[in-house]
Amino acid sequence: MNLATELATRSHCVRAHVGAVLTKDTRIISIGYNGPPAGTHNCDEEWPEHGCAKDSKGSCSLALHAEQNAIIYASKNGSTVEGCTLYTTLSPCIACARLIFASGIKLVYYSKSYAAYKGLASDEGVDFLRKFGVTVELIEN
């Protein structure tokens, strides 16, 4: 979790800094942090006061979440994430939870609640993962 927290500082997002680490058998498989796709814009440089425009659901229009970036990076480098453990500084949103489940990740540790960050009633992503057999645990700092 310490590495995920450190990775979060690399984020170019104006609104949030999130880091993620994928491990398997005590080895780091992939890393990621939230922000726009490579080759687009760095929000903190392009729009330092407000960040990128929001989409129709109120989320950043350019951002990939840290979990998404970690899974994509693993895929680009030929690594399988099936059976991996994910450490993330913010619990997965519902979209990331679906990707985590579909990718075969079996264990997720997080340190802060996405629901609390977004003002939602519950952590839908956590609920989804648990419903379908993925172990999800809060690691309090």
Automatic annotation (TrEMBL):
PROSITE patterns: CYT_DCMP_DEAMINASES_1, CYT_DCMP_DEAMINASES_2. Residues 1-123 form the CMP/dCMP-type deaminase domain. Belongs to the cytidine and deoxycytidylate deaminase family. Keywords: Hydrolase, Metal-binding, Zinc. This is dCMP deaminase family protein. The keyword Metal-binding applies. Zn(2+) binds at residues 65, 93, 96. Pfam families: dCMP_cyt_deam_1. GO terms for molecular function: dCMP deaminase activity; zinc ion binding. It comes from Pedobacter changchengzhani. One of its GO terms (biological process) is pyrimidine nucleotide metabolic process. CDD domains: deoxycytidylate_deaminase. Its cofactor is Zn(2+).
